[in-house]
Amino acid sequence: MGWLRWGPREALPYDARFDHRFDESARAEAYGPAYPSGWYHLLDSAEVPKGTVRPVDALGRHLAVFRDEAGGVHVLDAHCPHQGASLAHGRVSGEHLTCPFHAWAFDGDGALAGIPGLDRCPRTGVASHPVAERHGMIWMYHDVSGARVEPPYAAAEVGPIVDRAMTYRGRHDAGEVRMHVAEVIENSVDFQHFAVVHDGLTVPWTTWTIPGGGLDHTPDWYVDEEHAHIAYFEDDSVVTWRGQTMEGSRSLARVTMFGPAGVVWFHFQIPTLGEVVLFQTHLPLSPTRQRVRFRWFADPAVASPWAWITVGQWVAQWKADLRIWQNKVYQPRPVLVPIDGPVHRMRRWYKQFTVSDAPRRVADAR
Ligand code: FES
Ligand SMILES: [Fe+2]
Question: pTM value?
Answer without folding.
Answer: 0.91
